[in-house]
Design goal:
Chain A is of the alpha/beta class and about 1000 residues long. Chain A has 32 helices and 43 strands. The chains are: A alpha/beta (about 1000), B mainly alpha (about 220).
């Protein structure tokens, strides 16, 4: 099967800017080409400046100091990093993590293998959280009316406030928190309610799963939450959902999903994923069948599916057809789900209303999936998000009944729905207290601001999805004297300033029991969670008519352009806006950095006369917003998607004014999606920095994919398959890295690598979900600088591993997507090495293509000659003006590169060396699995294998023996050590002929 | 109109010629020497905040290196001791010495001592003490006769070529691991027999690739 792959609409239309990008080494003029129009005089000035700077470089090395401890901390050996288990709470999920600490400063976060929500892997947000700890813009003191105060001043002030409120039972007191799932916070919250019976408590999440909770309440009458078991699912249907990226449990989901894909590629059964969605999500890119449908059409689609499945009370759901959807599609889907009873899984997205979630719960139960692929449990120790609680709080604030408002984290002034106008309501409250990492939009307007401690500085606890409870333990004292929500609530409950440690231990006294408390407590701290603390599974009884609400929903009609709000995969709801790593991380699908334009499909753009980068005025529900548009293939037609979290005004030096604040048009009645939006072209354009065409390897298709059927037939008849490979697509049969007789003739003296370790890597395109976790992990491990939007637009981003995203198929339909992570290939015959005039890039005996920074003189010949375009050049001294505090986040085992130096993936040579030395000290050999590269360790899908390819029993050697194994640009005879395993799709045979089910409007 | 150039300028051509003749070899020679591994920091002996004498403590009192440099066998860094280690003895011995005032100061205030690094490798070179010590490379090999130094002085060039000389042929510098901290150890007469024995006990394979030390 031969396909055409393309990376952008510019490529498919062969626009001149794409041709120019291909032909140029770096996208814009700069050091690689002489700028046009430079005068002779300017040239001489530049030459003179270079000469005088060169003279300065010869100075003697500065005197360096050694500053030892006064009293050495117990167990700490300088030079040996220590690891501690802790927990990163995120919404109502908890990520069990293991944090590496160098002489007391946390530098790297990894997943905790024994925690069910991380399973040893991590996500971009987990990886980037360490940079937030060292954010130079974190607030450094308690303030009152923006004047510097101390925590003790606040304790005194609170004493007076609490007396006033205690008099009337807390009638004038209100607390606004983010949702949480934590035994200590829940205990303190109920203590606070007991103390102030008339207290008003609101819980608000800007990106919220309220719809799902409400749906489960509708369907079962109880406060339940669910856990998805992708590893047990054979047929998965996602409805406007993105469980593989923006869902807080994405790590667990990705691992389970990848297991199902991997099993299929190695001869077992492969799961099949159907996605029905408005916005092209990462889950959609992994789908075997994808249907573009507006978010508002999901309810009718579900009704039709229910009717087709034969759910008893599906009558009155509008029949078994949906306008514009090929009935064969629903037929095939229903047949597949029915054939896999107990092994199917239907997932609805967070932005869908409660009625859809209730119906999904009913359908999962009807199909026998409850208890196998989806399990339910009681939401214990939790504050559940509720838009109505925020709305009633705001009306109480506006009417003046609230005397004191405590904002316990969160940033409602920025992210509350625009129609509530939280800022004005807040101005009417006499006393406002806001806890925040920075003096953010809310803290700026509050009477009191209290700096919030980062989770790596906090004592606390959290319950993960499914119930496992773990302790948040600090690795470092608060850098800026921050306080935790536990400490603030503790003060409010007892009017006593108590350390968080005492409060958390008090909670755990009841969890663990008094006897041998310290032993058990230390065990929990060491392990990172309390073993066996999962909540019991609940098999709920369904309400009499769980589909009733869905019928009502289908009854309502709406038309016109639809507006859809999407959580940012990087900034989430804006809380990570001041994190440079996340801002510069290309969006998995659009490949945009530093921005959030409105996303539309090619057809929608054409109908509105828009092109990518055009500024538009978006009008919706009486509010308007001016922002650029970006054309994304595969979006549902008639949908405008707005990404949340950008456009912060008080995030800090990184996040201020980046992107557009889409919360300004969000309404409380429709936080997910709504109809009735209009776009007006303004006539101006806006520069956007997308990396989709960067590192384009001459437009050659470099991904290989196949279907399960093709793979099976090929395995039985390999000769035929090899013949089929001549066409360039498909799988070219068994393809080792070192074929016995290499088909290519080499002009160079062949090196042999038959001694010692020979490192190699495989990346499985079949399980890679394109989530970018590897990119952030690499950035954290290897001290990779952030370069900024302007530099990205010049193609100068520094990521050592990039994620190429290829489309194939009709751009105005639902093109399929393949992701391909591309780090340095560590070619055995590396083209870069042949052209370096100073031998700054050479091979070592273990097969690594080594970059020697101190030899590099910056000719960039190597980058020019690299067919994979994986080399990165320091055009500026990007780390030169880094604030001192950010230097604490640096990995001391990796050199910080200076201007004029080339760099690239090293296979984490520092990790290889550490493992080798440790093994030597322990007097043993290096075992398979001892060396994990940062990208491999972070990958939630375990798509990356790394190890010694000479060791035939190593996982990487076995992966390379897979018939799907192929080398990128193999015809160049570079003999790359990094190879790929082809992607395998598992289309439904009933649908293969049908193509995309929905005719293009 | 006054003359622009005074008569003294008549010497200019001679001076210029001399400068050309002398200056060019000087510049070439300067680059030749200063940019080469011969130009090193050997002899660097900065003044420390406390004139700690290794000659007294090691040479005369016989302290083992590892009493202070405790992590040399386990970690990349040998570790300069915390203030407390000094006070282990000096709260009873020489308690009122004026020279030790900074140590007492540090212990009292909790502010660490600030020693000057003598053996200073570039930031891009990653040296691992324990890997060398456990391979039988004696302290004295790189640091010289510390037990005879009142002020620690750099004796080895610590240049890359010097490192590589040993990495290419470590045998002459190896000794039994038990003798690593022994400053006065002399190789036995039959060096070859010792080398063979050490190689049998533990073969070392020092890296000669860039990635061995540069990350």
């Amino acid at each position: 099967m031969s396909r055409d792959y393309w990376r952008s609409l510019a490529q498919i239309e062969d626009r001149p800017e794409f041709r120019a990008a291909l032909e140029r080494e770096f996208l814009q003029e700069g050091p690689s080409e002489l700028p046009e129009g430079i005068t002779r005089r300017e040239m001489i000035t530049l030459l003179g400046a270079s000469l005088s700077l060169a003279g300065l470089a010869g100075c003697r090395r500065p005197v360096e100091e050694i500053v030892p401890y006064v009293t050495a901390p117990e167990q700490l050996v300088p030079g040996i990093p220590r690891q501690y288990a802790t927990t990163m709470p995120f919404r109502r999920s908890a990520y069990g993590v293991i944090v590496e600490s160098h002489e007391g400063r946390p530098t790297k976060v990894e997943g905790n293998p024994s925690h069910p929500s991380t399973l040893g892997a991590s996500s971009t947000l987990v990886q980037a959280s360490v940079l937030n700890l060292y954010d130079p813009d974190r607030s450094k003191s308690v303030t009152q009316q923006r004047a510097q105060k101390s925590w003790n001043d606040f304790v005194t002030a609170w004493g007076q406030l609490s007396q006033a409120h205690a008099a009337d039972g807390g009638a004038g007191l209100a607390v606004l928190s983010e949702s949480f799932s934590s035994p200590t916070l829940a205990r303190l919250a109920s203590g606070l309610r007991a103390r102030y019976p008339k207290l008003q408590w609101a819980t608000y999440d800007a990106v919220s799963d309220e719809g799902r909770l409400g749906g489960l309440r509708q369907a079962t009458g109880r406060d339940l939450d669910l856990m998805l078991r992708f590893d047990r699912a054979a047929v998965i249907l996602t409805l406007d959902a993105d469980p593989l990226l923006t869902d807080p449990e994405m790590i667990r989901h990705a691992r389970g999903f990848a297991e199902g894909r991997r099993a299929g590629a190695s001869g077992g059964a492969m799961n099949r994923l159907y996605a029905v969605e408005a916005v092209y999500s990462l889950t959609g890119t992994m789908a075997d069948h994808r249907l573009r449908l507006e978010s508002r059409q999901i309810a009718p689609f579900l009704g039709a599916l229910a009717a087709r499945l034969g759910v008893p009370d599906a009558a009155g759901l509008g029949g078994a057809a949906v306008a514009g959807v090929d009935p064969r599609w629903i037929d095939a889907l229903a047949k597949d789900l029915l054939a896999n009873r107990g092994k199917g899984l239907i997932v609805a997205g967070e932005r869908q209303p409660a009625a859809v979630h209730a119906a999904v719960c009913a359908l999962n139960t009807f199909l026998g999936n409850t208890g196998t692929t989806v399990t339910y449990y009681e939401t214990g120790d939790a504050a559940l998000p509720s838009m109505s609680s925020l709305a009633s709080l705001v009306s109480a604030m506006t009417s003046g009944t609230v005397q004191t408002l405590v904002v316990l984290g969160g940033n409602p002034v920025f992210d509350a729905p625009a129609d509530l106008d939280f800022a004005s309501a807040m101005a009417k409250v006499p006393h406002t207290i806001a806890l925040g990492h920075t003096v953010d939009e809310t803290s700026f307007r509050a009477e009191w601001h209290i700096p919030r401690a980062h989770y790596l500085e906090s004592w606390g606890d959290a319950r993960g999805v499914g119930g496992p409870v773990s302790v948040v333990q600090p690795l470092i004292l608060p850098l800026f004297g921050g306080r935790t929500p536990v400490e603030v609530l503790g003060l409010m409950v007892g009017d006593k300033d108590r350390p968080g440690y005492d409060i958390v231990r008090e909670t755990w006294n009841t969890i663990l029991g008094e006897s041998e408390f310290d032993t058990k407590w230390n065990r929990v701290l060491h392990d990172g969670l309390l073993a066996g603390s999962e909540l019991p599974e609940v098999v709920p009884d369904l309400a009499a008519q769980p589909l009733a609400e869905l019928a009502r929903l289908i009854g309502g009609s709406s038309s016109g352009l639809e507006i859809v709000f999407v959580a940012s995969p990087s900034l989430h709801d804006g809380r990570f806006a001041n994190d440079g790593w996340l801002q510069e991380l290309p969006d998995p699908l659009t490949k945009l950095t530093w921005d959030n334009p409105a996303l539309v499909s090619p057809t929608t753009a054409e109908m509105s006369g828009l092109a990518g980068g055009d500024m538009v005025r978006l009008e919706y529900a009486g509010r308007s917003l001016e922002l650029p548009v970006w054309v994304v293939p595969g979006m549902a037609d008639g949908v405008v998607a707005l990404t949340l979290g950008y456009g912060r005004q008080r995030a800090g030096r990184i996040g201020n004014g980046v992107g557009f604040d889409t919360f300004t048009v969000r309404a409380s009645r429709a936080p997910g999606f709504d109809s009735g939006v209009s776009l007006t072209r303004l006539g101006s354009t806006y520069p956007l920095s997308a990396t989709q065409d960067h590192g384009s390897m001459e437009g050659r298709p470099l991904v290989r994919e196949s279907t399960l059927t093709e793979l099976r037939s090929e395995l039985t008849a390999p000769a035929e398959a090899a013949e089929g490979a001549e066409g360039g697509g498909g799988i070219p049969g068994p393809l080792g890295v070192y074929p016995e007789e290499t088909p290519h003739f080499s002009l160079f003296k062949e090196q042999t690598y038959t001694q010692g370790h020979q490192w190699g890597m495989t990346i499985d395109l079949n399980t890679c979900i394109g989530c970018n976790a590897c990119m952030t992990a690499c950035q954290s491990e290897n001290n990779i600088p952030v370069v900024g939007k302007d530099q990205v637009s010049r193609g100068r981003e520094m990521h050592w591993i990039r994620l190429d995203r290829y489309f194939s198929g009709d751009p105005s339909g639902s093109p399929e997507v393949v992701f391909q992570p591309v780090p340095c290939m560590h070619c055995e015959d590396a083209p870069c090495e042949q052209v370096c005039p100073v031998a700054a890039t050479v091979h070592d005996a273990e097969g690594l293509n080594v970059m020697v920074y101190n030899r590099c003189i910056g000719t960039r010949y190597c980058s020019n000659n690299c067919p994979y375009k994986v080399r990165r050049f320091n055009f500026f001294n990007y780390t030169n003006d880094t604030p001192d505090i950010l230097k604490l986040a640096m990995n001391p085992d990796v050199t910080v590169r200076a201007r004029g130096v080339m760099e690239k993936c090293t296979y984490c040579t520092q990790r290889i060396n550490r493992v080798k030395i440790d093994a030597k000290l322990a007097g043993r050999e290096v075992r398979d699995g001892d060396v994990k590269t940062a990208c491999q360790q972070a990958c939630p899908a375990s798509a990356i294998e790394f190890g010694d390819i000479r060791n035939e029993s190593s996982r990487v050697a076995k992966a390379k023996a897979d018939p799907r194994n192929y080398a990128l640009l193999d015809d160049l005879n570079t003999k790359p050590r990094t190879t790929y395993l082809a992607k395998v799709r598992n289309p439904n045979p009933d649908l293969e002929a049908a193509g995309e089910a929905r005719p293009v409007a | 109109m006054a003359q622009i150039f005074p008569p003294s300028w008549n010497k200019l051509p001679v001076v210029a010629a001399l400068a050309g003749i002398l200056g060019l070899p000087l510049a070439v020679g300067g680059v030749w020497y200063f940019f080469s591994p011969w130009y090193t920091d050997v002899g660097y002996a900065p003044v420390q905040p406390v004139p700690y004498s290794h000659k007294l403590h090691v040479g005369e009192l016989g302290l083992d290196c590892r009493y202070c440099h405790a992590s040399v066998e386990t970690s990349a860094v040998a570790n300069v001791p915390p203030t407390r280690t000094c006070l282990n003895c000096h709260q009873t011995v020489m308690r009122d010495s004026a020279a030790l005032a900074p140590i007492r100061e540090s212990a009292q205030s909790g502010r660490p001592m600030r020693w000057i690094r003598v053996h200073n490798l570039p930031e891009y070179a990653y040296f691992h003490h324990s890997a060398h010590v456990t391979a039988g490379i004696g302290c004295v090999t790189c640091h010289g006769r510390i037990d005879e130094m009142d002020t620690v002085t750099q004796t080895a060039p610590l240049s890359m070529s010097w490192c590589l000389d040993c990495h290419r042929n470590p045998a002459p510098n190896r000794r039994p691991v038990s003798e690593v901290t022994n400053m006065k150890w002399t190789p036995p007469r039959d060096l070859q027999a010792l080398s063979a024995q050490l190689a049998r006990e533990r073969a070392v394979n020092p890296p000669m690739d860039c990635s061995g030390c540069h990350r």
